[in-house]
Request: fold
Amino acid sequence: MRSHLFEFHDLPWYPRVWRRILTAYVGLFGRVFDLFHPIVPRLAHALRQCNSTTILDLCSGASGPLALLQRQLAVEEQLDVTVMLSDKFPNLDAFRHAVRNAGGTLGFIESPIDATAVPTTLQGFRTLFNAFHHFDPVTARTILHDAVTARSGIGVFEYTERSLVWYVSALLSPLFFWLTGPFAIRPASLTALFWIYILPFPVLFGAWDALVSCLRTYSQEDLRTLAGTVAAPDYIWEVGRIRAFGGWHVTYLIGYPSAGRAASA
Reply:
């Protein structure tokens, strides 16, 4: 059963540098194991159904897997897309670093963007990578409803699960922090390394957050239930679970308006 406990880095008082450390590690983990690669065909199909060449990524953290997915869409699906990163607590240093290495087709929004109330001026297919579990069911439903109201497609992708393997992985996550510390933070930061190795409070809090992320993750049935409560009779919802690297999986919810009804992007 899903448990909606708190995560430290969701709290308003949580220090910015500690939040940067955790989101950087989440992004590094996904990139190292290329966990979201299996969803490329499904994401490409949804983008084509929406006639969209723009991805508006919500809750981007330290930029997540978007630069890698952007290249994979171009190479494997012959689909060139522009990506805009956004977050309620935007990590502008990480965003700028990602943009510098992306070759001009990746951008970011400097102002905070709330996933439950995206400004109507921001167009594009909305994505949330390993972020949807942060929201309780009422808020999660609001995020989906906001996309439906805007006639926007939306894709929710999660690689954590409520399983023993993930619970053990979460408890062992400090080892990943300490082994990859010099490579995770981009751009490099001596302050971040101090908090990782000398006073590792964000590492210990991060282990708690990793465990809670697993406990919070929505199952396929949870996602079907959420989608079913959104008044969208002309929306197509797809829910699934696909094998990723090793024994891990990605669970996804993709929604988009019926053909010809999507907003331009």
